[in-house]
Design goal:
This protein is globular. The protein has one domain. The longest helix has 26 residues. Helices cover 81% and strands 0% of the residues. It has 140 residues and is mainly α.
């Protein structure tokens, strides 16, 4: 009984839970929730960042919604550890676009936050949900 408890309750598992939970919670609270509850004009403004790269202006609202979705709903899913890898992939793509925009406009000094979130989402994508997650509980 003692060995099973120690294998389950290791410090690295708790560290990753803290990383996953705090990344999802901060992204949703500080960046995502106001965007997902905003109107389509806000989504269009967000989507214009991506459509400037690809040149398809009619996709600005759907792409803005996807960015809002990844910063809010996908971040909540990362926080609780449900569908973690697909959610982390969406967030990583969004943070890659945000980082590219920030670097081109402000330089590397003005883009550290989006780069940190990009790195955190890549780490979560590579590791998955971890031991303490709904993915592990539901899908083993």
């Amino acid at each position: 009984m003692n060995n099973i408890f120690l294998r389950t309750f290791t410090l690295s598992n708790l560290n990753f839970l803290l990383l996953r939970f705090s990344t999802g919670a901060m992204m949703c609270y500080y960046h995502g929730w106001s965007k997902i509850t905003a109107s389509s004009s806000r989504w269009e403004k967000l989507g214009n960042t991506m459509t400037d790269f690809i040149g398809l202006d009619f996709l600005s609202i759907p792409l803005g919604f996807m960015a809002s979705f990844s910063e809010s709903i996908a971040s909540l899913l990362i926080m609780v550890g449900l569908f973690t890898r697909p959610s982390a992939l969406l967030l990583a793509i969004t943070m890659f676009v945000a980082s590219a925009k920030n670097i081109s406009e402000k330089g590397i000094d003005g883009s550290e936050l989006s780069l940190i979130y990009l790195l955190l989402s890549i780490i979560i994508l590579m590791n998955g949900a971890g031991r303490f997650s709904l993915d592990r509980l539901l899908f083993k």
